[in-house]
Amino acid sequence: MSNSPEDATDLTINLFHAVTQTQPPSIDPASLRRAMRYGERAKSQYQDQDFSEVEADLRAGWFLRGETAEWDWVRAAVRVGFEQGPEEV
Fold first, then answer.
1. How far apart (Å, rounded) are the C-alpha atoms in residues 71 and 31?
2. Measured between alpha carbons, how far is 25 from 61 in angstroms, rounded to an integer?
3. Is the pTM of this model over 0.85?
4. Is the dihedral of CA 65, 27, 89, 85 positive or negative?
5. In the chain, domain spans
6. Contact predicate 25/73, CB 8 Å
7. Rg, C-alpha atoms of the chain
8. Torsions phi, psi for 85 (to 5 deg)
9. Collapsing DSSP states into helix, strand and coil, what is residue 71?
């Protein structure tokens, strides 16, 4: 079986298309920092609750803040901030 340039091009396009639907090409580090701080601040509002109990509220709040990064892309950063709480100085 011989490979023609057209076959390789089709394969590349199909793979690229599949990847971009599930994740961004890169996530802005500033968005991740904002997400982590958002989680840290939310902890004081949701004391004695687990992340899983308040995730829906946090997700809604993320977009109400005017953030454009998809929740699935920043969820882990929000969770880390929420579970660790504010940094103590």
1. 11
2. 24
3. no
4. positive
5. 29-89
6. no
7. 19
8. 75, 180
9. helix
